Amino acid sequence: MTKITLAKGLNAGLRKAMENDPKVVVMGEDVGKLGGVFRITDGLQKDFGEDRVIDTPLAESGILGTAVGLAMRGYRPVCEIQFDGFVYPAYDQIVSQVAKIHFRSQGKIKMPIVIRIPFGGGIGAVEHHSESPEAQFAHTPGLKVVSCSNPVDGYWMIQQAIACDDPVVFLEPKRQYHADKADLDEAASPAPLFSSRVVREGTDVTLLAYGPMVKTCMQSAEAAAGDGLSLEVIDLRTLSPLDMGPVLESVRKTGRAVVVHEAHVNLGLGAEVAARITEQCFYSLESPVLRVGGFDTPYPPSRIEEDFLPDLDRVLDAVDRALAF
Amino acid sequence: MSETTNADFGPGAGEVFGPTHAEGGAELVQLLTPEGERVEHPEFSFDPGDGVDETEMIRGFYRDMTLTRRIDTEATALQRHGELGIWAQLLGQEAAQIGSGRALRPQDYVFPTYREHGVAWCRGIDPLRLLGLFRGVDQGGWDPRDGNFNLYTIVIGAQTLHATGYAMGMQRDGVVGTGDPDRDAAVVAYFGDGASSQGDVNESFIYAASFNAPVVFFCQNNQWAISEPIERQSRIPLYQRALGFGFPGVRVDGNDVLATYAVTKAALQRARDGQGPTFVEAYTYRMGAHTTTDDPTRYRLSEDLEHWKLKDPIARVKAYLTRNGLADEDFFGTVEEEAERLGEHLREGCKALPDPSPLSIFDQVYAEQTEELAAQKAGFAAYLDSFEGAQA
Q1: From the candidates A64, A68, A73, A279, which should be mutated to test the interface with B, based on the most B CB atoms within 10 A?
Q2: Which of A184, A206, A238 is the last residue of a domain?
Q3: Of A102, A128, A129, A139, which residue is the catalytic one?
Q4: Distance from CA of A144 to the nearest CA of B (A)
Q5: Domain match, A92 and A113 both
Q6: Of A128, A157, A184, which one is at a domain's C-terminal end?
Q7: If one looks up domain B22-352 in CATH, what number appears?
């Protein structure tokens, strides 16, 4: 057992994947000597060389477009997008090429590309460094989208994403990179990549979250317990495809659900999750599924980001509204 | 300090910089004139390679170009008869495509746009397979690994980055610069004058230069991006852009199959030898429309087309072969018969291309099928079956 942060977990997972498969290449801006601006690729270029850990020119479409060519040649590129807000120059390559080539070629060409994106806010950054673009990718057929919330998941999920023969958008909660430590048991067998997980059991309301909001929901559940409320928390982990099994099971038990994410509420993941819960366990519901998220504004200047981001109080406010319905 | 104005830098607005549009300029590499005369060039010469008969090769080019033109006219006719939804015509660009396509070795890899029907021919793709995309029965009906010919890419310029990445993969596979002619490989990225304005094309130049990737950027400058003339894309001859990215650029007469072959062959060899990318601007003309939905009479002069007809890529090879007694009527007749058979193959085959099953759309979205999609497929199948007389 070793104590690791999310950053260390991801770094160790990347290292393991590179050791296990010589076709895995890491590419992105500053991923080499610097080890990435968040140090997630720290030490990899030193150990695996410049051919496998590639400092690319500063052009995101180029990162993804050349990754497509490498994948066609049999490589498994792991692309780092430096910040969420910088993914848009690569959006065409991701949506029109990466997502569609397997379909276009009727399965003759696989696109085992991982697109790592540090996402979300809460770090006091300037504009374009705190966004949550997951819905844009989850809406795109051909892509799979996952988000890790803790160090141990980071270690396993990055390896599973790299082993996946489909393109995976891998969202990393950047404010969690160096926040908490957890015990890693490398001999354990991880849950499947595309699975959700109950991380705290409860009976009154189900909280559904992923990435950075899992911690917020856990804290909310802890606080609510002091008031005699029992909240169940589910870490969705996979955003496309959604794993609705544990969600439906939980809502059938609690009858109430609140979906929480940093992304804008309008047409966000919460809308899809709420619709599916309504379609699939309508008669178990005691209240409408509520959503807590970022407002439908651009991400604000950082001095007021705490007002924009869902926090414990806003989550519990929604819980109260669900219970009062 | 004196005031600096824009006028101090380069050409002013409206000033002609570089060669004029209709001629291609003095730097144009040409080995066969429009009249069918062989001419020398100080840097490039037509070399068919060891053990290959020069005349046989040129006769082969004639055959390739004639059959390619037949593919194009036949597909255009199929569109007019409603058998294809649309067709992207290549009329006039046969030499650019056959010259470059025949310079490839089997181990090289090609990233086409949606107009490289002649290159597909060189790579052994059954032209019938090209029709599926335009008929709407598939999105690329051949296996890219057969003939190392990628599927057509419709978002212009996107494939130049794929080509560069593929070339970076070749470098990592150790198939560049080994000196073994059967092993060393390179990539050709095709694109057009319109795509030269795309960010992806410019990014691909930067990546290829930075990593010294074995790519030949083969731009068919056919003067028109649908209705927009080359002057809207560039103030300088396109091939001169390469210098700014740090690799050589060459402008070749794209209607001269010998010159296109020679220049592409040299560029490919440079790439295979590990000397990095080259930009080849094949200076040509789109004698047809952009696609069968386009109407060029709305934006260009018929004199322009008449002028370029005199530079026809096939006519000049025929003139050369005939004038020098290298081919007789029998030869031309045989090629014509072959073209007839090819036309019939396309006409009959196109109509027989089956529509895909509606349920097939779910099958290849992912390599690892999701439960969600499997459920959608089952639901849609049940819905279709619910109609009276439905065939499962």
Answers
A1: A73
A2: A184
A3: A129
A4: 9
A5: yes
A6: A184
A7: 3.40.50.970
- Asked if B140 and A102 count as a contact pair (C-beta separation under 8 A), the reply is no
- Cα-Cα-Cα-Cα torsion B343, B344, B350, B353, nearest 10 degrees, comes to -140
Task: Let me know: does A237 contact A148? Beta carbons within 8 Å.
Answer: yes
**CATH at A140:** 3.40.50.970
Q: What is the 3-state secondary structure (H, E, C) of B195-264?
A: HHHCHHHHHHHHHHHHHCCCEEEEEEECCEECCEEHHHHCCCCHHHHHHHHCCCEEEEECCCHHHHHHHH
| A15 within a domain of the structure (yes/no) | yes
- Give residue B23's pLDDT: 66
Does A81 reside within a domain?
yes
Looking at the structure, do residues A40 and A177 belong to the same domain, yes or no?
yes
Judged by CB atoms closer than 8 Å, whether chains meet at A89 and B364 is answered as no
Q: How far apart are CA A207 and CA A220, in angstroms?
A: 9
* A270/A292 Cα distance (integer angstroms): 8
Looking at residues A260-276, what average pLDDT do you find?
98
Q: Are residues A80 and A160 in the same domain?
A: yes
Any idea what DSSP says for residue A97? Answer: I
Compute the distance between CA of residue A95 and CA of residue A323 in angstroms, rounded to an integer: 40
Six-digit token pair at A322? Answer: 């669900």
CATH number at residue A298: 3.40.50.920
Q: Which of residues 12-51 of A touch B (CB under 8 A)?
A: 25, 51
DSSP type of residue B38: B
Residue whose pair of structure tokens reads 């073209």 in the numeric block: B339
CA distance B250 to B241: 10
CB B87 within 8 A of CB B291: yes
Q: Is the domain of A243 the same as that of A163?
A: no
Question: Count of H helices and E strands in chain A?
Answer: 12, 14
B8-24: average pLDDT: 44
Over residues A158-168, the mean pLDDT reads 98
The average pLDDT across B235-242 equals 96
Q: Is A53 an interface residue toward B (CB < 8 Å)?
A: no
Question: Which residues of chain B have a CB within 8 Å of the CB of A25?
Answer: 172
Tokens encoding A166: 């489909």
Task: List the one residue out of B154, B236, B140 whose CA is nearest residue B190.
Answer: B154
> Does residue A252 belong to any structural domain of this protein?
yes
Note the pTM of the prediction, 2 decimals: 0.95
**pLDDT tens-place string over residues A54-103:** 999 999 999 999 999 999 999 999 999 999 999 999 999 999 999 999 99
